[in-house]
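Exercise (ungraded).
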Amino acid sequence: MEHGFFTIISRSEFEALLRGFAPLSPETVDLAKAAGRVLAEGLVAPHDWPLLDRSCMDGFAVSARDVFGSGESNPGYLECVAALPIDKLPDTVLSPGECARIATGGVLPEGADAVVMVEHTQAMQDETVGGTIEIRKSVAPGENVMQRGEDARKDAEALPPGTVLRPQEIGLAAALGFEKLSLRKRPRVGILSTGDELIEVGQTPKPGQVRDVNTHTVAALVEQAGGAPVPYGIVKDDLDSLSRALERAIAENDAVLLSGGSSIGVRDLTVQAIEAMDEAEILAHGVAISPGKPTILGRVGHKPVIGLPGQVTSALVVMHVLILPLIRHLMGDGNAFSPARRCLRKAELARNVASKPGREDYVRIRLEERDGQPPLAHPVLGKSGLLRTIVQAHGLAVIPADSEGLYASELIDIWIV
Amino acid sequence: MEHGFFTIISRSEFEALLRGFAPLSPETVDLAKAAGRVLAEGLVAPHDWPLLDRSCMDGFAVSARDVFGSGESNPGYLECVAALPIDKLPDTVLSPGECARIATGGVLPEGADAVVMVEHTQAMQDETVGGTIEIRKSVAPGENVMQRGEDARKDAEALPPGTVLRPQEIGLAAALGFEKLSLRKRPRVGILSTGDELIEVGQTPKPGQVRDVNTHTVAALVEQAGGAPVPYGIVKDDLDSLSRALERAIAENDAVLLSGGSSIGVRDLTVQAIEAMDEAEILAHGVAISPGKPTILGRVGHKPVIGLPGQVTSALVVMHVLILPLIRHLMGDGNAFSPARRCLRKAELARNVASKPGREDYVRIRLEERDGQPPLAHPVLGKSGLLRTIVQAHGLAVIPADSEGLYASELIDIWIV
């Protein structure tokens, strides 16, 4: 019984292995279901957008030349010849000295190249159309005008492949008329829980039994990353049961997570079950992060199979650090592993935290909000099998592998999880 | 035509009005669908959790008294009397000088109060059970043991009402046996787009026409906040059509968003349509943020009705600043309006940004990543009717109402949106 049951690799080596799995194939998805997903193909504009020069303001369409030098103390005067329709190409043509009432979004008439905001004008008569408008501000050509093709040019790529579709990209796709989009598939992720001590959530535990916490926690995390969790429930701790369940889960999903066994025997069983599959290979047998060291990475065909640590706290950290990025990578996000994807808050560390060099430490942190100062970050210590520590925590502090720890009153990044 | 078509209130006054709407009523939801939702009632533990003292490690269950003073240079020796089962209450009782093999998660036997990790032991014979174990490290009572009730105490509130259920809270609910939870309803949010110039995404625009961008953008934002968007499509710009559509949307939803009309006429129509409803009241007619000033807040019965600015950029800012928090507030999140809910990144401002005091400015920011330094924050300027500026931006910089702007090279918070 020696220390070091397996050789471990660094977090970045583990990430490099995960990046080796190819993103999923494309599928066609309705625009209304596309938010958060990733473009498999670039979006090529079928026409210029805007189609024509349009006003960004309520005001008067003018020729900039006609209002040159106008100001509060030196207003210009133009004759208003029309109130332009919002939904049609205007048939008005402005001659020098003329302007036309225009609403936000309205198409500029021929002869106009700018818009004066209504706030900078004054109608001299009761009726606007047919009357004289006082112009109190000069405008440059193009001012207050959205120009044809400013959002997208016909036949040019408006959004490149690999774009993660936020609400604003959904808006651009709508503007360009895409009712359907070619997106990378959403990963289906099979979840197996192993452990003879496990029972379903609906059952009452006898002494020694525990409910299957990990399936539910891991499924919620898979969903958070944009994947579709497919829980297979509890599998008995024997090679035959585990191999059969694993084979089915691999066939039916794009990736498989095995969870529940933290003891050495269960870890060995997980490795054996993966190795028993066709075209299987164990790629990593431990990763230098804490908690989370006993994580197994296998490949069956072209699909990743991960043995998560059995302790729920460790599994949560491994999910956030490695598996949520893997899921986003499979769904096509080219920056899936970038730390820029993490949601951070600055906080002041409440006390020293020691760390063992050679591994990355993820310390659970509870934030205490303070008025006018960054929140105070309290490390939440406690055994990794307990849920209390992760329920009390607001996020994680990351201590790099080359550091011996962090000092009280340091301003650090807290990764909100 | 004077400046100031309506009286405007501050962002915090607008927020206070939004907080006045009551969170939605509870409903019963399956645990598998509960992530991201909010507890309507506290979760009271039906029993202690853990049920009994359990090991957090693979190793040997001992009485701490028996290994007091043990160390590398001065090991202790105990007789191993059993290998404990993982899934049952052990019938082993340890006498002084005895230990028992225990796996992670195993229940401690009578006579044991701590666990020595297997890494700190050495079996002196081939067979562990029946042999002598060398103990190379002392342990304190309770060490490496999850204690009965450490996660939750019988009949105590394990999670208070108002808790937002992250994956870890889902795990705790699973551990305590909750297959169903009492959660606040997910807000159904009706979305109406007004504008005679609007056409459906699937249609080809004639000059002057634009596709209905806002419905799709706003729906994606509602979903992002956890609400259920219910789009009603395009409504004609007349009081009768708008009133009928609004009446139906209010009846069928928990909140209604009207979008599309940025021109003064459409804003007036929105106000008239809201006022035409039974038990209706206009609560705010403008908010001191930029972009986003022409936002209308109404109340019909106990339901909020919001007139969004028609420009998509302005609508996006108003959604993030005010309406996503409103949706989270309606679904029970007591901290919905806290800036702590925002996902921030520190960045260095690339150039000066001026701001008009008296209103909060939300400046669109594109981040340029740099090695070993915070990213550089470039303001993305451009007309608020364009999608390009929000597609190019990674987030928003907030300039407070009492500030005249931000200076180049300042380290500022970028709100990722």
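Further reading is listed at the end of the chapter. For now, observe: Residues 312-330 of chain A form the longest helix (19 residues). The CA atoms of residues 364 and 380 of chain A lie 5 Å apart.
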